[in-house]
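Morning, I've got a small favour to ask if you have a moment. The fold is given in discrete form, as structure tokens running alongside the sequence. I'd be grateful if you could look everything over and explain what you see. No rush at all, and the record is pasted right below.
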Amino acid sequence: MTDWVDFYILPSEDPKSRRVTACKLVEKAYRQGLTLYIRTQDEEESRVIDDLLWTFRQGSFVPHEMAGPSNEDVPVVIGHGEMEGDARDVLVNLAVVVPTGYERFRRVAELVDQDEATKKAGRERYKTYQLGSLEIKTHALEKA
């Protein structure tokens, strides 16, 4: 059951900034002992996130794998479909729609940048969560 949804509003429209911010959130949650599923838009974005988790910050270490049948012991899983297996603590959604099965996660993190299409899709996701009577928290991030 989802406790709440965090919307992180980024000041840039650069898709790389959105992905790097996702990696920072994932690293922070991993260090808190949480398990995560990063839901991407497609296979290409999954590969980009996979690479970024190794390189987004010097000295960072976030153990992760691409989604597969044996991810139970991996703290961070990346995929572009509905997650199989046991629920995770946090769903980081980089897809344009609300993922099917989001209710299985305690918390959902949505990242919205200033690109018009991304903002529009973010508003639609916000409405969907709102209709589900979920607590929504919004965080306006500042330029780094």
